[in-house]
Specification:
46% of the residues lie in helices and 7% in strands.
Amino acid sequence: MTEDFIEAAIGCLILVGMKLSREPKDIEKAKTQAGMVSSFLATANLLQLSKQAGKIITHLEKNEVSQALEIQRKLLAELNQVATVENEDKKNSRGHIALVRYGLICPKCKTDNRLDSNFCKECGTKFEKKICHNCQTSNRSGSTFCTKCGTKL
């Protein structure tokens, strides 16, 4: 069931990008789609990602389309990471790639962990964090951009 909400969120995010990339831009419909993304992600218990979708709406309300598109691109990339497991060991019994439920894959043992984990539940590897030099927010070591302000880490 969680997989369905994640797939729906990805579909809506793609529509947000399409509506904001066209001329004339359809900001109202993009806001509606972003709201749906936020709801789907909250239902899937991916609250941090749901908040990112909420930021898209905030930027659109201020008519800041380029900032909204930037968050849309980052969120789409993060969701695709959550939805896809590249490791062949994660295949399910039907041979399909299993969906990651939490989104934080241990670099050592490839176990799926909750996004807010500090240590791997399987092997105990500590998940390092990067501190944003702009806003001092703590981000995962694999992050390229700050999850709060979008600054490149």
